What we know:
Blueprint lengths: L2 E5 L4 H12 L4 E5 L10 H6 L7 E4 L2 E4 L1 H12 L10 H26 L1 H4 L6 H21 L11 H15 L8 H13 L1 H19 L20
Parallel strand pairs: 1-2
Antiparallel strand pairs: 1-3, 3-4
GO molecular function, one term: glutathione transferase activity
GO biological process, one term: glutathione metabolic process
Pfam families: GST_C, GST_N
Amino acid sequence: MVLKLYVVSDGPPSLSVRQALALLEIPFQQIDVDFCKGEHMTEEYALMNPQKEIPVMDDDGFFLSESNAILQYICDKYQPGTPLYPLDPQIRAVVNHRLCFNLSTYYANISAYTMAPIFFDYERTPLGLKKVHMALAVFETYLARAGTTHAAADHLTIADFQLINSTMTLEAIGLDFSKYEKVSQWYEDFKKDYPELWKISEDAMKEIQHFNANPPDLSHMNHPIHPIRKIKK
Ligand SMILES: N[C@@H](CCC(=O)N[C@@H](CS)C(=O)NCC(=O)O)C(=O)O
């Protein structure tokens, strides 16, 4: 049975998995989950992922969530030893490090500032902005110290996808990060060197730009964590 991937069209973790599947030329069925309709909040969805988050992969009955785990699995299962996820212990360790850094720090701080206030009742605060700059400064340091052309090596790895899609949300809200020269160079190089992969991010960026200017009405949603914005009618 063809691999199924439940995605949200503008979700950075979903985009990264789509990019890896595209580059590895792995056929898959894409199932679009409508975040704004709360399609991921149902008990049926929770059977696939109790975290009620998107993406989820279904590989012939093997369900996996957490985009980092999905990326690692599809490389290991479908193209073991692919340069996207090298077998060399040290290079792989750096890829894993960058994936952890993105999950714990980079995307965590960036998405809290870029994405969460679009969909939920959060403000973009000076403290939130400070955390974004901290995340960018740390990534800049990693790139400077490693001296690599890409996030984890001198070639594309799955870590680039996650970090690119996090960074893309900064561009989507018009946040200028050009003072982080190495991050900016790496981001622009990705656009130039991988136009077909960038197109996947770019289409999502346009959606985020639209939502940033026109925040969606989620007042029908009963979210377990996030405060729902009240819409004045
Ligand atoms: N750590 C997860 C995060 C996935 C995630 O945050 N997905 C968002 C969409 S981009 C989501 O499903 N959020 C659910 C919600 O906010 O209700 C991963 O990397 O897969």
